[in-house]
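Exercise 4. Each item below gives a protein and its sequence. For each, produce the structure-token representation.

Item: HTH cro/C1-type domain-containing protein (Anaerobacillus arseniciselenatis).
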Amino acid sequence: MENNIGVKIKNLRESLGLTQSQLAEGICDRTFVTKLEKGNITPSSEMLYKLCVKLKISTNDLLVYMDEDSYRYTQAFMDDVRQAVLKRDYEDVKKIINKHISSPRFDSGILRGFVLWHQALILYYINKEKEKPFHLFNDAIKELNETVNVDSLKMKIEILISKANLHFNLSQYADALISYKEAEDFISKISKIDISDIKIRLFYNFSAYYIKICEYENALKYCELGIRTCTGTNSMQSLGELFYHQGLCKALLKRDGFEKDFMKALTIFELKNNKKFYNFVMEKSEKYLKRE
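Answer:
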């Protein structure tokens, strides 16, 4: 665990395109940075502050990685919330947040942004609020703007996708597109860090958006981007859904090849034992095959 802060500093440095010498300039020598990143040395509080300024991260956020208990606590909290969201169990999300919210860890920084983001989801899915969630999304993004680094940037992209999805659910399509495009713009700024999972999620949502507004050529473009990202990273995340969307677009555009896409989607859902999606795609496949 003592090497967590060194690994984190290295990741932040590389995400900003800085060499060890550039990070060390005006603070320490390059050798110190090398030892720090390897976990062989601990910086003084003054030096840590200067490094944080150059790395564009708050000292509080970075210090989480220096304390094993704090690090494990933070990771466990965020993992629990994310797992509950994956299950669409927003009551559980609410319970987890309410259990921990009194901790001073959540007063600022990335954790504060994370909490605001998920409180917005709670307001929408549990309280059925239609305006307040967007205020919390914006507050979360403002909180993350205080710390400009790869972690905060990744979280901002995720929040923008969530925000766009809520606009989409409320049939606010123009607003949804603005947030999707903003997320896409942020993704273009991250080149050295693997965020394939976030890219796949965005490409899938883009394809759903364009299918909804009957722009099938644009939908196909994002299906292809999503499938390429999945296959390039050996990921099954949303791959079945992307093949289904691709097949649907081809069928609606009266193009060849939609049958193969539907079959690929069916194979993936069968492997995942996802009977609900398997039956849905089978029904759609039979519908469009009858039109041939």
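Check: The chain has a mean pLDDT of 90.
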